[in-house]
Design goal:
- The protein is mainly alpha-helical.
- The chain has helices at about 1-25, 30-45, 55-75, 80-95, 105-130, 135-155, 175-195, 205-215, 225-250, 255-275.
- Helix 3 runs antiparallel to helix 7 and helix 3 runs parallel beside helix 9.
C-alpha cells in the first residue's frame, strides 16, 4: 500500500515538473527541430554541382575589374594583377615613379598578401572539402567581409580614398585596404582552381589571352572554354571601365568597393542555394 502511494506521488511530481518546464520553455529540442538541424547540416556538408559555376567565377572577374581600377586610381597599385605589381616593385627599385614615393611598398604588400591569401584559402578548402557548400559559403563570406571592412574604413574617413591625385605621399594606413583586398582576391582564384575552371582564373589575363589565341578549336561553333576566356577578358575590362567611371564621378573609391562587396555577398548566398552534386548510383 505504501509503495503504491509513493509511486503515485512520484508520478504527480514528474507531471508537475514537466508542466513547469513547459511554462518556462525549458524543454529540449523537439523531434521536428532536430530533423531540421540534421537536414541543414546535411545540406551544408553536401558538395555542390560544378555545372554553371562558371557564371559565379565570371562574376568574380567583374569584381576584379572594379577593385583593380579604383585601387590603382587611388593608390597606384593593383590588388589582383600581381604581374603589374611586380613591375611596379622593379620600377621602384630603379628609382622610377617619383610622383608616387614608396609606391613599390604598396605593390610589395599586395604581392605578399596575395601569396598569403593563396596559402590560407587553398589549405582552408582542402581541410574542409573544397566543393562543400559550407566551405564555399564561408570562404566567400570571408572575402566579402574583407571588401566591406575596407570600404567602411574609407567611407568613415579613417583611410583616404581620393582617386586621381597627381602627387601622393605615402600614407601607411593605405596598406590596410590593399592588404585585405589582395588577400581576399586570392580566395576566388583558389575556388576557380578547385572547380576545375582554369580558363577563368578571375584575377589575371595574360594566360587567358594566350590560351584563347592558341586554342586549336578557336573557330569552332561550340567551344565552351574559348567562350569562358573571352567573357573573362570582357568582364574584367567592363568592371575596370565601370569602376573608373563611378570613382571619377564621385571622387572616391568607397562606392565601388561597396558595390564589389555587395556582389560578393550575393555569390556567398548563391553557394548555399546551389544545386547538389548528383549522387552516382551504386549497382547492386
Amino acid at each position: 500500500m505504501e509503495q503504491a502511494i509513493d509511486k503515485e506521488i512520484g508520478e504527480i511530481g514528474r507531471t508537475a515538473e514537466s508542466s513547469l518546464d513547459r511554462e518556462r520553455g525549458d524543454i529540449g529540442p523537439t523531434p521536428q527541430n532536430d530533423r531540421l538541424g540534421v537536414r541543414l547540416r546535411k545540406h551544408l556538408a553536401a558538395e555542390v554541382s560544378k555545372e554553371h559555376t562558371d557564371i559565379l567565377m565570371l562574376t568574380c572577374c567583374f569584381i576584379s575589374g572594379l577593385l583593380d581600377s579604383v585601387v590603382y586610381s587611388a593608390y597606384g597599385t593593383f590588388v589582383s594583377m600581381q604581374t603589374g605589381n611586380t613591375i611596379f616593385v622593379g620600377l621602384g627599385a630603379s628609382g622610377q615613379n617619383a610622383n608616387k614615393p614608396f609606391g613599390w611598398a604598396k605593390s610589395l604588400t599586395s604581392i605578399f598578401c596575395f601569396i598569403l591569401g593563396s596559402f590560407f584559402f587553398s589549405r582552408y578548402c582542402r581541410l574542409l572539402g573544397p566543393l562543400r557548400r559550407s566551405t564555399l559559403f564561408s570562404s566567400f563570406l570571408i572575402q566579402a567581409v574583407f571588401i566591406i571592412v575596407s570600404a567602411a574604413l574609407v567611407e568613415v574617413g579613417t583611410i583616404d580614398g581620393e582617386v586621381n591625385v597627381a602627387f601622393r605621399t605615402i600614407m601607411w594606413l593605405e596598406e590596410i585596404p590593399i592588404a585585405m583586398l589582395s588577400f581576399q582576391s586570392a580566395g576566388q582564384m583558389v575556388t576557380s582552381r578547385n572547380l576545375g575552371l582554369n580558363e577563368i582564373p578571375t584575377v589575371v589575363l595574360t594566360s587567358v589571352l594566350c590560351d584563347f589565341a592558341s586554342d586549336p578549336g578557336l573557330g569552332k561553333k561550340d567551344n565552351v572554354r574559348r567562350n569562358r576566356r573571352a567573357l573573362a577578358f570582357v568582364l574584367i575590362l567592363v568592371g575596370a571601365i565601370v569602376g573608373g567611371w563611378i570613382a571619377k564621378a564621385l571622387g572616391g573609391m568607397e562606392s565601388v568597393m561597396w558595390i564589389a562587396g555587395g556582389i560578393k555577398l550575393l555569390i556567398t548566398i548563391a553557394w548555399v542555394l546551389w544545386p547538389q552534386m548528383p549522387q552516382l548510383a551504386i549497382p547492386i
